[in-house]
Design a protein that fits this description.
2 domains; 4 strands; transmembrane; 492 residues; transmembrane helix; mainly alpha; single chain
């Protein structure tokens, strides 16, 4: 039996690391406009010593995410000397460390079985996998939801003021890394907390209130500096946005309700390997059964955290209904998945007498993880996508130009080719290649055309950027649909 447990333990750990590290090793990680822009900003902070107090833009005109995302990238830039893959390795280390710390927290507070329910879920759940290599500011926001869960649970247990500090710290960083997510979760937390006497008393206690408020200062400090320097320009933009909201094809309440219900179902299924609906339904019914047979006999002290997180999910859902635009990005509420999972873990821990039934559920999850993993072991070739694709194109110029000055103009669907700008900047410092110019050099210029579904855009760009008195002398088609062309002027 001991060898069986060790075998299962090794298998799950191997799958956990495999599903996150293979995309990084193969460089098939997402690498788009946002990543290129943010990596360039990190380079600017380190190379030019140009510290910023604001982060990437949000969907609200004039409002930015917090600068902490850029600070994190700048640290990784320093550690890995700007190596593009280094950003993804750093993100993997941070997310994995956070998940394992939470695993040990659950093991200590809620027991061995509950900790394995958490670990099996995060091993193959689609949402949790992407946290290991999706380099975006909104990827870090859910990690602070784990700090929020940890702090709320221990505040109910100990009633210590220090956890109020960590609660507000988590809320503040959640907002700074993803403004939309932060708005929803902060609003929902305050509404939910007012239903609980422990929080109401804390808000009326001066020492605890100061402790709670002070937790917000660290995350929002760079934003405060920016606001003081710029006459509170973002605060005014916030007020303007909420006092004069603009709607794009506003949905009816019923349509919004149906859309959010579908979205929350999606969040739940992201906990299930391969998002299997039938397995998800079976798991849901099992937890309803556990809840029904034990809830009547539970002491209120033990159910308070469960009631809090259940009400928090309900309030987040209701608050999200306020946004009735015809688009509502999934990541606006990322982190909800952790709250849903923790609710199930608390229910799982309610009854200590159903060990066999719980072990059966864990066994079902284990085999579901194995099946999900086996489908990732197909013998297909490594796809030419993400960072791998752009790296291949830039490597072509490393070989072709032999450290000579050359002209390069780039067409990408996002218009500004930040992805290429960053890679050329990195290779110019670490490989034998010059940073490309925009002007024709030796009467020649290379052109990169990324795959574009709307051909008329490419044609218009060609007319604007390729001189009429020039001819195509070389063309290379890349496997991902991009192409490289070399044009030569016919007249000096």
């Amino acid at each position: 039996m001991k060898w069986l447990k060790l075998c299962i333990l090794f298998s799950v750990f191997f799958i956990f690391f495999y599903l996150r590290l293979i995309p990084i090793i193969n460089q098939t990680v997402p690498y788009t406009y946002d990543q290129g822009r943010d990596f360039l900003k990190a380079e600017e902070i380190i190379r030019d010593k140009n510290l910023t107090f604001i982060g990437p833009t949000t969907g609200i005109m004039g409002v930015h995410h917090g600068a902490w995302w850029y600070y994190f990238l700048a640290l990784l830039y320093l550690v890995f000397a700007g190596w593009p893959v280094g950003f993804y390795i750093g993100l993997f280390v941070l997310s994995t460390t956070t998940l394992f710390l939470f695993f040990f927290f659950i093991k200590k507070e809620l027991g061995y079985q509950s900790s394995w329910l958490f670990f099996l879920t995060i091993t193959a759940g689609s949402f949790f996998i992407k946290l290991g290599f999706f380099a975006s500011n909104n990827t870090l926001s859910p990690l602070f939801v784990l700090l929020l869960i940890y702090s709320i649970y221990l505040f109910f247990k100990t009633q210590s003021a220090e956890y109020l500090f960590f609660i507000s710290l988590a809320l503040g960083f959640s907002f700074e890394f993803e403004v939309a997510s932060g708005i929803f979760i902060i609003t929902s937390f305050f509404i939910t907390s007012l239903f609980f006497k422990l929080f109401r008393k804390s808000y009326l206690n001066l020492r605890k209130l100061v402790c709670f408020i002070s937790g917000f200062i660290i995350p929002i400090f760079p934003r405060l500096l920016f606001e003081l320097k710029n006459n509170f320009i973002q605060t005014k933009a916030f007020i303007s946005f909420y006092s004069h909201p603009t709607f794009t094809n506003q949905l009816s309440f019923i349509s919004t309700l149906a859309e959010r219900a579908q979205l929350f179902l999606k969040y739940y299924l992201q906990l299930i390997p391969q998002e299997n609906f039938y397995l998800g339904l079976l798991v849901f019914l099992f937890f309803i059964y556990l809840l029904i047979i034990r809830i009547k006999n539970m002491k209120r002290g033990r159910t308070n955290p469960l009631l809090f997180f259940f009400l928090l999910i309900l309030v987040i859902f209701l608050v999200s209904l306020v946004s009735r635009n015809n688009f509502f990005w999934d990541y606006y509420l990322d982190g909800v998945q952790f709250i849903i999972l923790f609710i199930f873990i608390l229910i799982f821990n309610l009854n200590s007498q159903l060990k066999l039934a719980k072990n059966i559920l864990l066994g079902v999850f284990f085999f579901a993880v194995l099946i999900s993993f086996s489908k990732n072991l197909s013998g297909k070739n490594i796809p030419l996508v993400g960072l791998r694709a752009d790296n291949k194109i830039v490597s072509y110029f490393v070989e072709k130009t032999s450290n000579r000055y050359f002209c390069l103009r780039i067409y990408t669907p996002p218009v500004i080719p930040y992805t290429y700008y960053y890679l050329f900047s990195y290779y110019a410092r670490h490989q034998k290649i010059k940073y490309p110019r925009q002007e024709f050099t030796n009467s020649q210029c290379y052109f990169i055309f990324d795959k574009e579904p709307y051909s008329f855009r490419v044609e218009k760009w060609r007319k604007d950027n390729i001189p009429e008195k020039s001819r195509l002398i070389e063309k290379k088609i890349i496997d991902n649909g991009s192409s490289i062309e070399l044009w030569k002027l016919t007249e000096s």
